[in-house]
Specification:
Among the domains are: 139-256 and 480-544, no CATH class; 282-476, Valyl/Leucyl/Isoleucyl-tRNA synthetase, editing domain (Isoleucyl-tRNA Synthetase, domain 2), CATH 3.90.740; 628-752, no CATH class; 912-973, Ubiquitin-like (UB roll) (Roll), CATH 3.10.20.590. By secondary structure, the protein is α+β, with helices and mostly antiparallel strands. It contains 31 helices and 38 strands. The strands form ten sheets. Strands 25, 26, 27, 28, 29, 32, 33 and 34 form an eight-stranded mixed beta sheet that branches. It is globular. The chain binds one RNA strand through helix 10, strand 12, helix 13, strand 16 and strand 34.
RNA sequence: GCUCAGAUGGUGGAACUGGUAGACACGCAGGACUUAAAAUCCUGUUCCCGUAAACGGAGUGCGGGUUCGAUUCCCGCUCUGAGUACCA
């Protein structure tokens, strides 16, 4: 029989499901290997051809590892809480659980069709109570923990309480809110219960506090920083504003240093690590306190100093002004009556500017003088205090010491407001701009004059410490993560309130199930949708927390759940976690760099601190698959007609139009269209790709055409006419009898008609072809447009492979003869090649190598059973269905292929006794000579020089030099 | 602006530690089979010069360098994509 991919694929997909072929063992003598794909969100649109790219790669890897004798864990599940289902629910009134269920069913059907070797017995869904029970449980552990900086790990809050009871706050070195109380043990004990709870909240790793959040009114929720792009929500593109709210937060900053250090120990793409490093944003410097000059109007000010953070404390003698953010809390009290007008005007002006403008406009210098001064702690010089919006309230202390000679922004500021610029380095050149050099020796700098950068920095810090005016400090850009959404479709927070203070519900009351509501909208009083639930109170009395957890909660620990997915006693058993440890290979997109991948590492470290998991890093090796872009096709319609012109005619018309403009008239077409009239004085509008004449009339329109009715950029005219009613009577102006479409690479989206659905590909060519073609497209990590054009080649390859096992009448027929030398050579070449390729995730090159091997075996007319059986095993990770079928036809038991042994490479089959040496002159290859590989370089040289053709090239002269690299090349210099 | 990644035929791409640039595939052209088409198979296909072949020349974004030899290493530049954005 010819290659019947439909029957074969259905048969084996059913077989794998019924026999649970890919069920992973929880204890095994085999070494473990954990291959994970990033958790998909089951969107309503289903999978397009770009989504499975990473899944196919990881599936090939997982299947390959099984053949190599590993116990492979390769699970799949759904990150099924999220905004789109909820938006849909708001529009339609349908419960998000129902749409989510339907979407998951679509995903599952599509995934099954591609033939993945997932262990579906471990499927998880973040939105099912059996799963989010443990998300809530982890939240409770975070609430019950604090970060002990001395031990550099999270510890139970009871330990902190015990310390307070014995020693008070003395000796506690914790990551906490800024304003914590100092108290003795007795004072602690004297506090009321509520006061104690309020104090403890300042230490808990998940805590409640008023913070500035990214509030998106259109979505009615708070967004994480990585969900906001240029002041708009990433999903939907709605405006986002800053708002103060009581919010659950996570003290991820406690882990900043460990998150940074951990990056050096994991095998991730360098750009991804770099993104995390930038996000964490560590800078080493010093904090310095500048005493406020109280000689004038500030005498009764409660605070004595302004603290700044600087990375160049050595430049402190170059400070000629201090700049604080307009939002800084001291602005009002520092402003003198004379300056009040200027300051108020400036603040009003900055407030008007949106966050976006403020970021975009980095050129204009603006600011205002408060009228107050601080004193330089090292020489008591008066330094004026200014406010300016280039200082950000959210970073460091919201205040900077400005050194105009060394910092360009400070330099511009000083120039603009005519403030002094003091050079501090002997080699500093500050004629036209600031010079931040660290080379040279200090001048104008008191006791550090003549020192080098290193000496000066140490000396200044020592002096500041001695004076109690400053100390070395490390600052991080990363902020604590907001952990709450004012939305319905998420995990309820297992917290209730009593007297305004949060308390955890009993662990035995988990899961706290999402209550039913009448509408998925905020309440009339502006409370989150959970406020609509009737009779929803803890123990019937206490109010629950009404916000739900953010999207990243459920995905920050899910890889542990796969280890023991059906455990209802623990989030995962200790034995399972100890066996599977961590993810060996994680494949997914780089868009999760600063979200999911950072939060997951954070939770993992926390879970390790409390002793329930054992690895410091969860994802040992990570690969980013590139994005699959869309490839759009266009047709060109002459406006007000049903005529469409082919691409190159369209291009000629453009040229024609420009020639007419230049006064030249050429005859391009003999047609009834009056091109002269049409193209006289036309104007091309880049933005919407239309052509207008001087009246503004549309002349030619670029229209997206469904890529599924275009093959190799040639339009299927019959299908086009049927595609939409308005095209039924279309006429076409062809070139060479064809209608050629224009092409552009864009995002894959419905509105651009460039979405290619895997279902259609599978229908036409089968899953094995889809799998191999996705890999064949190019390197996994590179982004590329999807172009179905080359898929025939892969399909033909599989047919050719199938034919190796069959005779001319399509009857199964293999020979049991001894394999020939040539056959063994082809086989062992591919054995090694595929091993090497998979090891470096170069799947595209192994597809090419399979083609070469099958071409070779076809040329050899090989039907050798031993050779073909090994070929089946090697190919099976890539094209599992066809291989399963051939495996059984070869007489093996069904289902055993997945656990067969990968053939062993034997280099002796590749040993050659001759090599066709390229003979080059001055590095340019001229000819090839077959020379025995047993010859030594000197013998090769003699052999080559004795050759008549070589002598012809040398023109009788002796070469100046001969380079012989054995087994590689002969090069002669003349 | 800064950081990172990349640039190779008509197209996707290959060339792993410096050693025959363009593997493999698509497309295209020509041919075989067919009444015809589809399917299949065969041949050719980097560019330029040359009627063609042999042959010759150029060639991996651009300009230099190191080397017997550079797509690969070094320096400078251009362009494209991604991330980030006054971070003190």
């Amino acid at each position: 029989m010819d290659y019947q991919f439909k029957d074969i694929e259905q048969k084996w997909q059913l077989f794998w499901a019924e026999n649970q072929t890919f069920k992973a063992e929880d204890n095994s003598t085999k070494p473990k290997y954990y291959v994970l794909d990033m958790f998909p969100y089951p969107s309503g649109a289903g999978l397009h051809v770009g989504h499975p790219l990473g899944y196919i790669a990881s599936d090939i890897f997982a299947r390959y590892k099984r053949l190599k004798g590993f116990n492979v864990l390769h699970p799949m599940g759904y990150d099924s809480f999220g905004l789109p289902a909820e938006q849909y629910a708001i529009q339609t009134g349908q419960h998000p659980a129902l749409t989510t269920e339907a979407n998951i069913a679509t995903y599952r059907r599509q995934l099954d069709q591609i033939g993945f070797s997932f262990d579906w017995s471990r499927e998880v869904r973040t939105s099912s109570p059996g799963y989010y029970k443990w998300t809530q449980w982890i939240f409770m552990q975070l609430f019950n923990s604090w970060y002990n900086k001395t031990a550099d790990k999270a510890e139970g809050i009871d330990k902190l309480i015990a310390h307070f009871e014995q020693n008070g706050s003395a000796g506690i070195n914790a990551v906490s809110d800024e304003e914590v109380l100092s108290f003795s043990a007795d004072e602690w004990k004297a506090l009321s219960h509520d006061e104690q709870q309020a104090e403890l909240l300042k230490y808990r790793i998940t805590y409640l506090r008023e913070s500035t959040v990214n509030w998106c009114p259109a979505l009615g929720t708070v967004l994480a920083n990585d969900e906001v792009k240029d002041g708009f929500s990433e999903r939907g593109g709605y405006p986002v504003e800053q708002k103060k709210m009581m919010q659950w937060s996570m003290r991820i900053t406690a882990y900043a240093q460990r998150l940074l250090e951990g990056l050096d120990k994991i095998d991730w793409p360098e750009p991804l690590k770099e993104m995390q490093r930038n996000w964490i944003g560590k800078s080493v410097g010093a904090s310095v306190r500048f005493p406020i000059d109280k000689s004038a109007h500030n005498a009764q000010l409660a605070i004595d100093y302004i603290e700044v953070f600087t990375t160049r404390v050595d430049t402190i003698f170059g400070v000629t002004l201090l700049v604080i953010a307009p939002e800084h809390e001291l602005v009002a009290s520092l402003t003198t009556p004379e300056q009040k007008g200027a300051i108020d005007a400036y603040i009003a002006q900055t407030k008007k500017k949106s966050e976006l403008d403020r970021m975009a406009d980095t050129k204009t210098v603006s600011g205002a003088f408060t009228g107050s001064y601080v004193l330089n702690p090292l020489n008591n010089e008066k330094v004026p205090i200014w406010i300016a919006d280039y200082v950000l309230a959210g970073y460091g202390t919201g205040a900077v010491m400005a050194v105009p000679s060394g910092d360009q922004r400070d330099y511009l500021f000083a120039k603009h407001f005519d403030l002094p610029i003091v050079p501090i380095m002997d080699i500093q050149n500050i004629e036209i701009e600031a010079d931040p050099t660290k080379d040279g020796l200090y001048i104008n700098s008191d006791f550090i004059n003549g020192l080098t950068y290193k000496e000066a920095t140490a000396a200044v810090i020592a002096k500041l410490e001695e004076l109690g005016a400053g100390k070395a400090k490390v600052n991080f850009r990363m902020r604590d993560a907001i952990f709450g959404r004012q939305r319905y479709w998420g995990e309820p927070v297992p917290v209730y309130f009593k007297d305004g203070l949060p308390y955890l519900i009993d662990e035995s009351d988990l899961p706290l199930v999402l209550p039913e509501v009448d509408k998925y909208l905020p309440t009339e009083s502006g409370e989150p949708p959970l406020g609509r639930a009737t009779d929803w109170k803890y123990k019937g009395i206490s109010e629950y927390e009404l916000s739900t957890m953010p999207g990243w909660a459920g995905s920050s620990w899910y890889w542990y759940r796969y280890m023991d997915a059906n455990n209802d006693k623990e989030f995962a058993s200790e034995a399972a976690v100890k066996y599977w440890k961590d993810v060996d290979l994680y494949i997914g997109g780089s868009e999760h760099a600063t979200g999911h991948l950072l939060y997951s590492r954070f939770w993992n470290k926390f879970l390790k601190d409390i002793g329930v998991v054992f690895e410091e890093e969860p994802f040992k090796k990570l690969i980013n698959q590139g994005m699959i872009q869309g490839r759009s096709n266009f047709v060109y319609r002459l406006v007000k007609t049903d005529k469409f012109v082919s691409k190159n005619i369209f291009k000629n018309l453009l040229e024609y139009a420009s020639l007419i403009k230049k006064g030249q008239v050429i005859q391009l077409f003999e047609d009834d269209i009056n091109y002269d009239k049409l193209y006289n004085d036309n104007v091309y509008n880049e933005d919407d790709k239309t052509y207008f004449n001087y009246n503004g009339e549309l002349l030619i329109q670029n229209l997206h055409v469904d890529v599924n009715i275009v093959t190799n950029d040639i339009l299927d005219i019959q299908k086009f006419k049927k595609w939409r009613p308005e095209f039924t009577n279309s006429e076409f102006i062809l070139e060479d009898g064809k209608y050629i479409c224009g092409v552009e690479v864009e995002k894959m989206s419905k509105s651009k008609f460039n979405v290619v659905n895997p279902d259609d590909i599978i229908e036409r060519y089968g899953a094995d072809t889809l799998r191999m073609y996705e890999m064949f497209l190019g390197p996994l990590e590179q982004s590329k447009p999807w172009n179905t054009n080359g898929i025939e080649g892969v399909f033909k390859f599989l047919r050719k492979f199938w034919r190796l096992f069959h005779n001319d009448q399509w009857q199964f027929s293999v020979s049991g003869a001894e394999p020939s030398k040539a056959e063994l050579k082809s086989l062992h070449k591919i054995i090694r090649k595929v091993e090497e390729d998979i090891d470096r995730f170069s799947f595209n090159t192994s597809v090419s190598s399979f083609m070469i091997a099958v071409n070779e075996l076809t040329d050899l007319k090989s039907s050798n059973k031993a050779i073909l059986q090994d070929m089946v095993v090697i190919l099976s990770p890539y094209a599992p269905h066809i291989c399963e079928e051939l495996w059984t036809l070869l007489g093996n038991a069904a289902g055993t292929l997945s656990y067969a042994a990968y053939p062993k490479f034997n280099p002796s089959y590749l040993v050659e006794d001759e090599f066709a040496y390229p003979i080059s002159i001055n590095g340019k290859t001229k000819m090839n000579l077959n020379i025995s590989l047993s010859l030594a370089p000197a013998e090769i040289e003699a052999f080559v020089l004795a050759n008549a053709d070589v002598q012809k090239y040398l023109d009788g002269k002796a070469p100046k030099k001969v380079i012989v690299v054995k087994g590689r090349i002969v090069n002669m210099v003349v």
